Amino acid sequence: MRMLLIHSDYLEYEVKDKALKKPEEISEEQKKGRLDEVLAVFVSVEKVDEQNPEEVVEKAVAEIKDVASQVKAQNIFVYPFAHLSSELASPDAALKILKAVEEKLKEEGFNVKRAPFGYYKAFKLSCKGHPLAELSRTIVPGEVKKEEEVPEALKKEEELVSYWYILTPEGELVEVDKFDFTGHENLRKFANYEISKSRIAEKEPPHVKIMLEQELVDYEPGSDPGNLRYYPKGRLIKSLLEQYVTEKVIEYGAMEVETPIMYDFEHPALEKYLNRFPARQYIVKSGDKKYFLRFAACFGQFLIKKDATISYKHLPLRMYELTRYSFRREKRGELSGLRRLRAFTMPDMHTVAKDLKQAMEEFKKQYKLSMEVLKGVGLTPDDYEVAIRFTEDFWNENKDFVVELVKIIGKPVLIEMWKQRFFYFILKFEFNFVDNLDKAAALSTVQIDVENAERFGITYYDEDGKEKHPLILHCSPSGAIERVMYAILEKQAKLRNQGKKPMYPLWLSPIQVRVIPVNEDYLDYALYIAGKLEGARIRVDVDDTSDRLTKKIRKAEKEWIPYIIVVGENEKRQGIITVRKREDGKQYEMQLEDLIKEIKQRTEGFPYKPRPLPLLLSQRPKFRG
């Protein structure tokens, strides 16, 4: 069970619609409710709670009592809130547990109200804002709470002391608490997030609603949490992003390879690396052997490089793999839509460099490559914040280089500095997207690794024919593909909140043009127009449903269709098209050839894939609801 407890001046709700086919039966009076001077307890009942519901109820009531005594609250509002977890209990089990919590609290002498279960509800609350006003709690039945295998790197990371600064393009290094964040509000949010190290997702980020409404991606109840299902439109977007990033990296000069997804836990180099990499692993047993599912492409590529004969003439040597998938057993509370997953697709490039000078040259090039890749998916430096992390020694010896990186991005960045090196890298940058809940997620990253060449036995021959250990750069120019989708959708949610129309980048839009006949008499002409567009490699569909014209247009708007063509008598007679452009909301009469030319110009240089759904809307299934 997960609980979010908010000490409030009041909480009130109003039932709007059914969220379940068979919600809790309620009276007319229960459709609205309010309590003043209240401890609001938002609750998600989880699958694991079904194993010992009585214990969960006892523990939950004890936690609520403890918080209520601290904030001196006598009124308690139990509010079902599914969005705190992705591993929900069955509706029947959840309702029984919620009712039991309600009754137990009443027995303890509290004035308790419970919001109805299984409904969409509008609610208002006024948080008091003192230090104990917002708290979260996780309840786990004792017998299913197992000791987790945690890598040494994660344990040590929690003990690591970081020193935080802001570095300006002018080269001024300012302690975070002394920096004036005026005009850099997003940087302030990012710094707070990083320093707090709180990764728990207490609310559902807006992109989740979008990905479900748009039928892109969905949770998969038949798998481990953090492993998602992709519907046709979502698969198209993901596939195009995979192709785009891969093409950019190969164009940059990398050689593409493919490596296994599982590795021997007892391999000496891998075992040591596991204890240096801060990630939780999936463990797989085969007979008496224990394997782990990869959490990056590092070791597969390292093992290839170990067996290769490499000369200084080959350096820098770049190797790349698009890992579908990499696996990390993130904590359940950290899983959040597309932002943080347990199975993800990571474009992963590793570059062998002969020395620090060459490594730093590559680092700067890959920094610029990452900016270019993000620009292609519609993300500019205004949309993300930069973190640069290094040891104090590296800063003292390479200040000018670090400042140059800041000048390239053109705005202040967050600096994390360590007195001594703990990780396998001496320098790292990340481009981080800050979402609508003020949570940050790393996109692009590059690291200079000074350990793993020696650990894995990777060498090259220098000018004198001597074997030497190189340095290795780890680079993902976009970050996980799923996280790029998250950033795109979260950016559009921000724009929608500002009253602007959300849009996909045109080359990523699942349907780029929708043709709408004013009635069935013009369906043939609509199909003719669609055929011309499809022949020009433009993703187009036709709304042949019996809906009214206004409803068809609204439907296209809800799907963020960039171009809507309406055809009727006038268009057929004159051989023209009437186009509504989502970008500016205006309507144009134009020649079809001109529209084709416009779309081709705007999508030039980006990959193309055909329409992911049937041409006619009447032939499409509905994947949700």
TrEMBL record:
Region forming the signal peptide: none
Entry's cofactor comment: Binds 1 zinc ion per subunit.
GO cellular component: cytoplasm
Domain annotation Aminoacyl-transfer RNA synthetases class-II family profile: ranges: 209-505
Compartment(s): Cytoplasm
Coiled coil: none
Gene3D superfamilies: Anticodon-binding domain, Bira Bifunctional Protein, Domain 2, D-tyrosyl-tRNA(Tyr) deacylase
UniProtKB keywords: Aminoacyl-tRNA synthetase, ATP-binding, Cytoplasm, Ligase, Metal-binding, Nucleotide-binding, Protein biosynthesis, RNA-binding, tRNA-binding, Zinc
Annotated residues for binding of Zn(2+): C298, H350, H474
Enzyme class: ligase
Any one GO biological process: threonyl-tRNA aminoacylation
Swiss-Prot/TrEMBL cofactor(s): Zn(2+)
EC number: 6.1.1.3
Entry's Gene Ontology molecular function annotations: aminoacyl-tRNA deacylase activity; ATP binding; threonine-tRNA ligase activity; tRNA binding; zinc ion binding
Pfam families: HGTP_anticodon, tRNA-synt_2b, tRNA-Thr_ED
Principal subcellular localization: cytoplasm
Listed SUPFAM superfamilies: Class II aaRS ABD-related, Class II aaRS and biotin synthetases
Catalyzed reactions: tRNA(Thr) + L-threonine + ATP = L-threonyl-tRNA(Thr) + AMP + diphosphate + H(+)
Subunit relationships: Homodimer.
NCBIfam families: PRK03991.1, thrS
Similarity remark: Belongs to the class-II aminoacyl-tRNA synthetase family. Archaea-specific ThrRS editing domain subfamily.
Protein name, per record: Threonine--tRNA ligase
Organism of this sequence: Thermococcus barophilus (strain DSM 11836 / MP)
